[in-house]
Every structure is written in structure tokens, then in C-alpha cells.
Fold this protein.
Amino acid sequence: MPAMDNSTQPSFLNGQSTAFLSAFDRGLYYGHGLFETLRVCRGEIPLWSLHRARLLAGAERLGLTVSSELLEQYRDQLLLAAAAPADGVMKIIITAGEGGRGYAAPDKLVTSYLLQWFPLPENNNYAASGIQLWVSEQRLADSPSLAGIKHLNRLEQVLARAEQAVESYPEGLMLDNNGNVIEAIASNLFCYREGVWFTPVLNRCGVAGVMREYLLANHVVEQCDIILAELTSMDEIFICNSVKGICPVIAIDGVGEWSVGSITQQWQQQLRDDLGWGELVCFG
Amino acid sequence: MPAMDNSTQPSFLNGQSTAFLSAFDRGLYYGHGLFETLRVCRGEIPLWSLHRARLLAGAERLGLTVSSELLEQYRDQLLLAAAAPADGVMKIIITAGEGGRGYAAPDKLVTSYLLQWFPLPENNNYAASGIQLWVSEQRLADSPSLAGIKHLNRLEQVLARAEQAVESYPEGLMLDNNGNVIEAIASNLFCYREGVWFTPVLNRCGVAGVMREYLLANHVVEQCDIILAELTSMDEIFICNSVKGICPVIAIDGVGEWSVGSITQQWQQQLRDDLGWGELVCFG
């Protein structure tokens, strides 16, 4: 990854334009917080309600108070600053705010709302050509109280991502300690066999992605345990997230190879039609 | 915990006095970093070399570059700002610095060194009277690549600590998913039975505390798996960390009760003698 100059990225903390956060924030100290990464298309965020719902569910889990009103006020402020209508990515970080030195939260937590704007990632045509995954050595640990939500404790993903260059492998597959397929590093996995779609159940580890939620609400998909070797027998596999849409998987190292699936392509087209994101919806 | 006003705490980032950090720092984004909490006694840090060693080992694990020279330069700068010789607590946070939006690190990571000064916690006499622990519902997940080091992904500790008020239970016991005793929320556990000291092995989860390291270097202690029920048969139990020293455990909810152990008291005395911390060494 080339170095990025963040000094020109629009960034707001609690409604104030700033590129800084308190060095005493519990988000930094312990990862006591959550984040969302949202696709903005011509000034709109088609999956806003799903992002907000996950954020509120995560806040409940971590003992944070999040105001939907403030969230939407700050969202609109960032969209305005980014000269919307524009295409881009909005990052929202919610933290428990400042605390003292120890793990115990202060009596009164004051939530920090940090919203930042990023350009869309490069369209590298993976949505059409498909993608090859490696299987990460880094396993996802079982932690039911943290499973599903998008909290700020992401060292497993950082270590997994560091195993391979992005240029060689844009995504990697992650398993749990029992060898179950859970997700890709920054996306969720769906697979299809003989008329049935499957996706890993995420009640012990993994992030329940917003695009995954969207697809589960719009298609019949079975959530279950999937051992790595079971992928060999699948007819189609894809990964998805809310920034990049749906991307076919055409190879998993040591597991198998696939063609770009025809039903996967139908789902991609449906996303383009339903969310109105045009061709940019699925760029791998 | 009462609210804390951090605005008066000495705080330095890369040698500059500031209470702020970049809002694009990977320490905030993903917890991509490490921390140390060091007891300062009359301007000295008796366990400095052990803290530094753990920090360097953790940096190796997380792909961070840490310069011992810079670390010691910034340490001395903070000691000076805190008007040492003084008693207090130094917090050191090392992060991977600024990055872009994704998990992949930039080609060139620029390490952030954040050093902060805090007053000593209150001496509540637990070191003499002993302490009662509850058994946390929150389990520590197996993650060998992260075990032992003091990284910034600490939501398990945050959730465990939130189960009970500090005033009722100053510390809680944490188990792994298999029911093994691993550590207390912010300290390590030692126990003694029939002439032998034991402490949990920390190769799958847990933080290998600096005080634990110090005691292992100065006493014969067996590192092994310890199931919760095994604690019932122990003659003495204590917890320890590098800020609070050694604190006897006199009760664990649902497990058993103990007297303040006589060998534990000998170890406390030896700490006072060897590290020269005087009476403040063990305040629970």
C-alpha cells in the first residue's frame, strides 16, 4: 500500500473539523468503540439504515450511548464537506470517549463521534474477472460477546492482511480455531451448491457485514458451520462487503478453482438495479 | 470510577507535548499497537528493562519498529515533565501510526510514541488485608499469535471489568473458553500448594505481566494449565502487577476462601527490599 496523506481528508470529531482525537480516548486505549465503512454514491448512502442498526446493536453490546439524531447530523455535515453529491467512502468511528488509566469506564461516558471521508478504492475489475483467495494462517478466536459487531479490536485482521501483499492477493480467507470458514479479511463469504445458498454462521466470531445482512434479507440463504474442505464441493462462491459489493471467487489456494458463477452474476446485477449504484457497485 | 480530568496530565507524542493523536492512527482504527503501564518510584522505574523487553517482543509480533533509544529519550522527557523524582504511573502507548482506510499497512509505517503520566492509584490496604475476586462471565479467547503481549485490543478486559463495580470488586478472575484460569483482569495469578508455586501458562491467551516475569525470574514457579476447581485445593493465592505489586487473594466467589498467606507475605517483603519501593509496593 502506498503511503496516504490524510491531511486533506475531511474529518470531523463531534461536529468539529479536526484530524485529531484525544490521546486519552478509550477507543485508542482499549479499542472501546465501533466503526462502519459506508459506500456513498452520488451523495446517497443506500445501506444507511443497516449500518445504523449494526452500530446501535454494537453500542448496546459495548455499553456505549449512540444518538441516531447526532449520527445523522454528523453524517450530513460530512457529506456537505465532501461536496456531495459525490462517490466515496465514509468511515464512522464511535468510541467510549475519554477515560482514566484503567479498564473501568468513568461513571459518565461521553461518546466520541468521528466521521471521515475517503476516495473510492480503485476499480480493478475483480467483480467481473473474479478473485483468488489465500487461506490465512491467522485464526479468528471464539468470542461470542464480541461476535458479529464491528468493534475496534481488529488485530486478527491486521495480522492476516500482513501475510500477503494486496497486489498478489486482494483478499484472504479466515477460519476459526476449529477449521470452520468464517469470512474473508474485510468481507463475508457466500457459497452455492445444488440449489442452496450458504453463508457461515457468525455467533462465535466474525463480523456480520452490512452487505451480508442486505443479501440475507433479500434471498434465501442457510446460515451454518462450513468446514474448509466443504468448499471443494460448491458450485459458486463469492465474497461481499458494503463498499465493494459482490465479487466472485475463482480460486482458493489448496482448496479449488471455480468459474465466475452465473447466479453470482445475477445477484450482482440485482444489486446494481436495486441499490442504483451502477457499474461501480462491484469492483472487487 | 469518578470522571478524570486529563487536561492536566503530562502527555507527549513523539517528543511533543500534546493531549492529541492523529484521528487516522492505526492504534485507534484497529488497536494496531501496544502499551505498558510502569510504576515510577522517586523518579526511578525499577522494572524498566522488563517493560522494554515486553514492548520490543510485542512490536516484533505486530510488525512495528520500536527504537530503544527514542523510547528512553521520551521516557526521560516525561520523567522531567512530571517533576521527578516523583511517584506515579507512566503509560507508554506505541502504535503503527497513520495509515489509510484498510487493514493493509502502508509501505512505510511511522511508529507513534505516546507517553503519559498519571498519579498513583489510591492505596486501599488490600495488600495487607487481601482481596476478594469474582469470576468473570467474559472468557478470554484463544489467540496464540496475540497471547502474552500487551496489545491495544482489550475489549475482553473492558467487558469483564464492566460486570462489577470497582468499589465492590477491585479485581475479577478470567478463564478461557475451556474453563482454565488465565489471569485477573489487570493482573496475573499465582497459587501455592504443598511446597510448589504455580501460575497459568499464557501461550494461548492472557497478558504476560512484567511483575509475573520478575517473579518467575526470582522464584521457582511451575507454569501449567489450572482448572478453576483446582484453586479450591490451594494453600495460598495472590495476584500481582507491576503497578500494584503483590496482593493476597482471600476469597473467590463460588470457589473458596483463604487466609492471607505467610509465603505470600514473604514475597511481598522481598519485593519491598529488592525493588526499594517501600510500603507503597503492594496496595491492592
